[in-house]
Amino acid sequence: MFAVYAAEPKPDDPLAALTVGERPDPEPRDGWVTVTVKAASLNMHDLWTLRGVGIKAERFPMILGCDGAGVLDDGTEVVLHSVIGDPDWSGDETLDPKRTLLTELHQGTFADKVIVPRRNALPKPAELSFAEGACMGTAWLTAYRMLFVKSGLRPGQTMLVQGASGGVSTALIQLGRAAGYRVWVTGRSAEKRAVAADLGAHQTFESGARLPERVDAVFETVGKATWSHSMKALKPGGIIVVSGSTSGPDANADLQRLFFLQLRVVGSTMGTRDELADLLRFCASANLRPKIGTEVPMDQAPAGFQAMADGETAGKIVFTR
Ligand SMILES: NC(=O)c1ccc[n+]([C@@H]2O[C@H](COP(=O)([O-])OP(=O)(O)OC[C@H]3O[C@@H](n4cnc5c(N)ncnc54)[C@H](OP(=O)(O)O)[C@@H]3O)[C@@H](O)[C@H]2O)c1
């Protein structure tokens, strides 16, 4: 079948490992369903995979794509939950030590077909297109958990999103605005800040800019480049929710500020199947649609990867079949 895959790990030149070609059809498995992929979206995770981060060398070649929406053999339209847990685990799947994301152990969604455990295929709300549904499983689910499960923020309080135009950032902005938070955003260029403003950000700032007042919560995926600003942006007792470190993980902890202002730093990863079901219902009932910056046929995936590697994002990058 057609597939976009990582041929081998290439730590220093990830795009050189990206291959558009043919891979074997998935073998049916008991308790798993076959999904004919209609749309899938790109995440930074796919670039990490090309670099060989978070995946063992013997697992290559690996079909890329953590997110997807498509159709089951019986015609049911589905959105995929990409956290594949141990069948014996009960409770929050994100805490299962044996969990993997699609593309870490099992083949991903940038292909004609993908197989997933039956419980990982959720009914797609009719209100969402396949392309919109394909944005939900990673970036939007991660943003949903950061905001509504981890932050403890109440409507009316002020949140700061570090980064304006990326998948998780745009999801945080749209969800935060829909939930009634005061949404502030930093972006690296006027163009990127305009994306955030169009999505409903109340104020936008240059990266690292002094803010008019301190905020209740900061949402971090950038890491080293913005961490010090995030720590300084918080009110006493404020919280940083962090789910990524794109610019590097080794940020200065700023421990004196942490204890003296009684700040809280909380990690967040992906979300549970139930949280994805709630997110899908929220999008349908609040008339919320993910910002898609680029939507191209899957055979043009390399252009999307190049744009993400160059930081040229304006919302989610979606590939269709
Ligand atoms: N833990 C999890 O479950 C989970 C889930 C999803 C994503 N993530 C992580 O979250 C991060 C973002 O993923 P994504 O898919 O949203 O990527 P993306 O679409 O490429 O977005 C990248 C974002 O990072 C910002 N950024 C990058 N470098 C920066 C720098 N040096 N200074 C300031 N801002 C910078 C960009 O801000 P501008 O708009 O200003 O350019 C943009 O908003 C990745 O590290 C990813 O691995 C983690």
TrEMBL record:
Residues 13-319 form the Enoyl reductase (ER) domain. SMART domains: PKS_ER. Keywords: NADP. The keyword DNA damage does not apply. Pfam families: ADH_N, ADH_zinc_N. Gene3D superfamilies: Medium-chain alcohol dehydrogenases, catalytic domain (3.90.180.10), NAD(P)-binding Rossmann-like Domain (3.40.50.720). GO terms for molecular function: oxidoreductase activity. It comes from the Bacteria. InterPro entries: ADH-like_C, ADH-like_N, ER, GroES-like_sf, NAD(P)-bd_dom_sf, Zinc-ADH_QOR/CCCR. The keyword tRNA processing does not apply. This is NADPH:quinone reductase-like Zn-dependent oxidoreductase. It comes from Actinocrispum wychmicini.
